[in-house]
Amino acid sequence: MNTFNDQQLHDFIYAEARLLDEQKFEQWLALFTDDAHYWMPLTQGQTDPLLEGSLMYEDMLLLKVRVERLAGVRTYSQQPPSRSHHLLARPEIETSHPGHQPEQGKYVVRTAFHYVETRMEQQWLYAGWATHELVTVDGALRIHQKRVDIVNSDAALHGIQLFM
Amino acid sequence: MNYRNNPQAVQALIRPTEVHKDIFVDDEIFELEMEHLFANTWVYVGHGSQIPNPGDFYTTTVGDQPVIMVRDADNTVKVLHNRCPHKGVEVAPEGCGNTGKFFRCPYHAWTFRLNGSLLALPLKRGYDPEVFNECEASHGMAAVENVRDYHDFIFCRLNPEGQGFEEFFGESLTTIDNMIARSPQGKLEIAGKPLRYMHDCNWKMLVDNQTDTCHPMVAHESSAGTAVHVWEESGKVGPTPMAVEQFAPFISSYDFFEGMGIRVWENGHGHTGVNNSIHAAYSPIPGYMEAMHAAYGEERTKEILGDVRHNTTYWPNIMVKGPIQTLRIFKPLAANKTLVESWAFKLVGAPDKLLERTLMYNRLINSPTSIVGHDDLEVYERAQVGLASRGREWVNVARLYDPTESQRKNEATNGTTEWQMRNQYQAWARYMTASMTEAV
What ipTM goes with this model? Predict the structure, then answer.
């Protein structure tokens, strides 16, 4: 099996964020495996996505719903649309994470970020860490889970309409 | 318009079929709501399972008042104003915890019993007892006199005088009863932290929305409608996903919502989903029916689970969903700012899958990331901006109005009526002015 070096993993993480900021959502969805999840825990250090509350825990069906909705003619909350900006720190390869098994084509990468979402006159800043659990499918990297921990996950938040 | 000490002017904001925009945008009206409406009504504070042991506390707000809900040594629940009588510091920190046998102010170490009374203060010899006993501070932290623990649902009325708990809620408590009965052990537990969602709009827009059955098929076409579309496009392989089961009923037809029914109780309380509801057609969860039958027998189980009430509004500011075990609090922060907290309950003794379903519903519908929530937030915030217009003065609630309705109570009717909204605004005028004095 091909293994990916650190630079290739970093490039993958940066490219993913760029697709989001350029709103190439269909291409972004294609980065995920069919059984992938996008998870935003509600509490710090949360371990259970199902029996504890989360901000988001979405499978591919739900992510597709979001992407289709963003472009809907009756999606009034996106008229005018939101925009996003990801500022990523250098991704760290989580070599001690049990899911990090390069010999099996599995990688865990953690990336600190600042994320800005804007709509009309308003701008919101979020800070956090994204943890990507990556797998190798047909020789290419795919996301099996993207976990987004924001530092104020349990604070009173305004609407977050795009993807961190 | 000056509303303070002017009950006639306040009452004039509510007409039988329309309400004046000032109730949503006027800062003085908001202040008066905090002083009167949220003092004269029984307001939800929290759930007993948040404070199971003596000394456990939880801090929150009742209207704009910071309070502590605490389990006293005798296991009763007390509600205290979270304010040190010495220098005004909030005695208990935000959140929940255990304070032991007493509260200790972090500023000068004055201590208070769990009922708020003053226990001790350092260097007491510096106070002349006769002088100090004349001071307000000698009475300790102010306790809310009227607290009611209704099967773990804690309510309080800040005003010492006023309507009793039973009279205020009347038959509406049956929704809470039903949610509790859905546990095979007749017991609910708060499931973790709430989802907290900030809205730049007036709190009553959210309350109004809870029994608004003419908006889902319009406002939520973008979210629920898309969910149904994506599921259909996918070829519908396998059983309908839980998420699709939860989204799809939002875009039911007008006929469905008319047939669902609305029941209007006294004092601003009411509920949608009398005969049917958007929560009625969820797939059965293995093991649950068996546990219910064992606990209640078949007939009683059928009665409990057959009651599929949709949204129950407890005036002024909570909504309870029995069949999905959630409770939402609409916390007023300013005329144009509301914090929505959406809490989930675990049915003690029921399979975990029910909790999973409840938590899924809560994040799909009530999270700050919810696409259904985005639809609603957009219209609330557009309304808050739109109401600044001087082009029109009034907000309309005339749908299916009947002039005799104000003499009727506890009645079920067409599911698209705005009678329940009118009921809320009539209650608004009553509890706003009940303790208001006229300027001389």
Answer: 0.97
